[in-house]
């Protein structure tokens, strides 16, 4: 894949009005809608496993999950073909419409980077979907999240979501691009920690799910704040994440029980009053971490702190907040389910210390990578910065 020369997005010799990012808004938001569908479908499917039991390949939650990835993949393909036809017609490529264009398959196609990544994720999802169908044909019912086909599917969907983030970051000079980025990042934050289930059975000195939650939450919130360079971006991302959590908290149990009633399947006999699994794993106190991130970024920039270590400092502080808040969140949910003596969940000092160390280490790593991811997103469409001024 080789980069394609691009012209300035505005001015003489630039792309025609039909090639402006406004004409690609449908494609960008269709990809985002597909990723949202995949998130809703997965939350429903996880809850179905808990409340009803094992399932086959052909269920309604699976249909929603697969349809979301298919929609995002088809939309990405359409946008790649659109860019290819425009390039062959001699119209300069606009990097704000999905990212810097690259030549694929020896120049046969010209693909905006964001749609190339999202489309690749959609294609891999189809491949691993066939693998999942084969897996079901061998073993029948499916009752776990960490089977090889499932882990591969989670990674491919996450790749599509990464492509969506790239697409909207490329259009950050426009309001619709900033809004899309603020929405697409929480979708990615909700989904990516699920891949840590692949390590649940590996003997590790720490909880891989907690480490993944801390890392991805801090990394993506900080990446969004650095990419947009606007105040309250981290807070906005946290608010959208909270809204998604509330919706999934209500929808997942309701949809599982309504669908079970519709198909005539009973619920499990040993069900307890437990919180929905996927939304319960989303940080409930992400707003507090976002406040810390916003405050330290504002303080560091105002006092001229070195940009070389400011992201690591902010990430470490945010990681500790996320890690400790997840400890509080888990204790609250366990107490609500009637676990622990006197209805309370006990937490040792060793657990708190380990969680603090996990927050510091993975938060600092998240901050280090977030700054570099933000640089890549901004370099993908540097002209957008000039437009936004």
Explain this structure to me?
The chain has a 3-stranded antiparallel β-sheet with strand order 1-2-3. The radius of gyration is 22 Å and the shape is globular. The protein has one domain. 67% of the residues lie in helices and 3% in strands. With 389 residues, the chain is an all-alpha fold. The relative contact order is 0.12. It contains 12 helices and 3 strands, in the order βααββαααααααααα.
- Rg value: 22 Å
Low-pLDDT runs of 5+ residues are 7-19, 338-345
Strand-residue fraction?
A: under 5%
- End-to-end distance, in Å? 32 Å
Chart the SSEs and their pairings.
Blueprint: E1 2-3, H1 25-51, H2 60-88, E2 101-104, E3 109-112, H3 113-139, H4 148-170, H5 175-191, H6 208-228, H7 233-263, H8 277-280, H9 286-302, H10 310-336, H11 349-380, H12 383-387
Antiparallel strand pairs: 1-2, 2-3
Give a summary of the structure in a few sentences.
With 389 residues, the chain is mainly alpha-helical.
